[in-house]
Design a protein that fits this description.
alpha+beta, Alpha-Beta Plaits, Rec A Protein, domain 2, 3 domains, 5-stranded antiparallel β-sheet, 3-stranded antiparallel β-sheet, 7 helices, Transposase_22, coiled coil, L1 transposable element RRM domain-containing protein
C-alpha cells in the first residue's frame, strides 16, 4: 500500500515536472521572440532619432569662457578662423546651445549645432578631419550627433578598433555601427565587436603559423567570403 502510494506520488511529480519543463520551454521561446522584437524596435527608434539629428554637429571641449553672450554668433565668426577652407563654403548655423545646466566640474558642456542641412554638417566634419584645432591647450572635437543607442553601439567597437590598428589595419567606423578593416588589398566589414575579435584572433594564429604578416590565408578566405 505504502509502496503503491509512493509510486503514484513519484509518477505525479514526474508528470508535473514534465509539464513544467514544457511551459518553461514555451516561455523561453516567447522571451527570445520578444527580445528580437525589442531589438528591432530599438533599432527603428534609433534610426528615426538619428535621422532627426542628421543636420547636427556636436562640439566637445569648447571652453565656456570663449563665447561671451551669444554662442551661435561666436561659432559663426570662429568657423572660418578654425577652418579657413570653409571661408568660401560658409556653412549656415541655425542655432547652437550647450547640453545641460552649468556645472562646477571644470569640464565644458557639449555644444549642439543645428545646421541648415546635412551638407553643411558634412562640410564642417570634413574640415575638422583635415585641420584639428586646440583652444586653451585642449583638443576641441567635432562629431556627428547620434542617438544614445547608436553612440553606445559605435563605442563598443573602440577596443577592437585599437587592436586592429596595432595589427596594421586601417579602420573605418561606418554608419550606423559597423567596422571596416583594410590592409593591403583586403577589405572586411563587421557588424559586431565579437566578429572582429574572432577574425583578429584567427588571423593572429594563422600568421604566427605561417610567419607571414603581409597577407594570410585567413584574410584571403574572408575576402572571398565577403565577395
Amino acid at each position: 500500500m505504502i509502496l503503491s502510494t509512493c509510486s503514484n506520488g513519484v509518477r505525479e511529480l514526474r508528470d508535473r515536472f514534465s509539464s513544467l519543463n514544457s511551459r518553461v520551454g514555451k516561455v523561453e521561446k516567447n522571451y527570445d521572440k520578444s527580445a528580437a522584437r525589442l531589438t528591432t524596435l530599438e533599432e527603428k527608434i534609433a534610426d528615426l532619432e538619428n535621422r532627426s539629428r542628421r543636420d547636427n554637429v556636436r562640439i566637445m571641449n569648447l571652453p565656456e569662457s570663449v563665447e561671451a553672450a551669444n554662442l551661435t554668433t561666436y561659432i559663426i565668426g570662429s568657423l572660418p578662423v578654425w577652418f579657413p577652407s570653409l571661408s568660401d563654403v560658409k556653412p549656415e548655423i541655425m542655432r547652437a546651445h550647450r547640453i545641460g545646466p552649468p556645472n562646477n566640474s571644470g569640464r565644458p558642456r557639449t555644444v549642439i549645432m543645428k545646421m541648415l542641412s546635412n551638407t553643411d554638417r558634412d562640410s564642417i566634419l570634413r574640415a575638422f578631419r583635415k585641420s584639428p584645432i586646440k583652444l586653451d591647450g585642449k583638443d576641441v572635437r567635432f562629431a556627428a550627433d547620434y542617438s544614445a543607442f547608436t553612440v553606445n553601439r559605435r563605442r563598443s567597437f573602440m577596443e577592437v578598433t585599437n587592436k586592429s590598428q596595432k595589427m596594421g589595419f586601417q579602420t573605418f567606423l561606418l554608419y550606423p555601427a559597423q567596422l571596416k578593416l583594410m590592409r593591403g588589398s583586403a577589405q572586411h566589414v563587421f557588424k559586431s565587436p565579437l566578429e572582429v575579435e574572432d577574425f583578429l584572433n584567427g588571423l593572429a594564429t594563422q600568421e604566427n603559423e605561417e610567419g607571414n604578416t603581409s597577407y594570410s590565408l585567413l584574410e584571403r578566405k574572408w575576402v572571398e567570403w565577403s565577395h
